[in-house]
Amino acid sequence: MKTYLAIDIGASSGRHIAGWMEDGRLQTDEVYRFPNAVTPAEGHLTWDIDALLFHVKQGIAAAKEKYPEIESLSIDTWGVDYVLLRGNQEIRPCYAYRDSRTEAVIPQVHESMPFSELYRRTGIQFQPFNTVYQLYADKLSGRLEGATDFLMMPEYLMYKLCGVKSHEYTNATTGGMINAGTGTYDPEIIRALGLPPHLFGELQQPGSVIGEYDGIKLMLCATHDTASAVEGIPMEEDAPYISSGTWSLLGVKTKKPITDEASELANWSNEGGVGYTRYQKNIMGMWLVNRLREELCADKPWDEIIDEARLSRFEETVDAGAAAFLAPESMKAAFDAALPVKPKAAGDYFRCAYRSLALSYMNAVQELQHNTKQHYDKLFIVGGGAKNTFLNDLTEKATGKTVIALPIEATAIGNLTVQIKNSKEDDN
Questions:
Q1: Is the dihedral of CA 179, 79, 251, 101 positive or negative?
Q2: Catalytic: which of 48, 225, 238, 426?
Q3: Range from 144-153, 235-244, 271-280 carrying the lowest mean pLDDT
């Protein structure tokens, strides 16, 4: 029995999931789970890459102990973040996308290349944390001096396992520098911003074997976690999806990028998929309720929180995508400041958050149908948010779509699916 290992790392936790085919069906087993979180350091928000690598290796050891013959493994993470290297030495710290360091440089980037031109070339929505802005901040601070490599987070972790520096396509597209037409780094963007061209290596597709660790092949999956999640959704038609985690990624598969003015104005992205484009939009997700829980009722089980939200009659909503909710010191205070009527109980805050998310999904679905000139009847939801029946009910009511909630590890399943498919191709 061939066994494969998916290492799926999100902004709040990581997991190692073994998978194998049995009677034509994919079977999975979570063998290791670990925490992850943004780490404050010297006034900035950073990632503890040493802790991440430690847990990656610990999880692989745990998987091998249970499944000694692992055919291959791959790692996926969130997008846009990266590690800079001088040779084999990391340029520290490793900044997290929620850090505010890009705010001052965004206007300067747009002076060098207006956002309308960036969008025409890349089709990537504006987000203040896009890789293109992070790298420009690095340039101005001198962090790029002497830098020999820049590796997106999963490629960095795999490099630390096998010594090979790779650049995977789907994750690279999240940063705002990949030309939507050619599928390669856009040299005009790199030139206009004065970034070192040698940092931007040739892109590799999911399924590429890049090395070996402890007798296990390292294969690139779709290393952007949402790209893997889309691969893991068992849908027969190309219906809209929400990959619901810290962020809610709402989109649909398209054959070609859509980079028209309507898409730019509505801030839609054209990110890489496995043989298709993911026309999608980043929407605020479980970050809202996770932070509220930390402040209001850290020890209360989620089922009790959801029941209280159902029972609440608080009807006010907020703009869930407002900048005030991106990285506030207090999420409760951010809600209080945005609401004309203050919630009186914890359930009121959570009801407000869930209703606000459902409304943001409704707006995004309407934009999606307008921009693609398609009508959709179904909406698939995967990821942690798919387990929330209250939010699913609100979403179905708000969007008018049949919500198909699949509380599965879609990202890990997509990671494994790419490995299994390409392993079979290697055998033929």
A1: negative
A2: 225
A3: 235-244
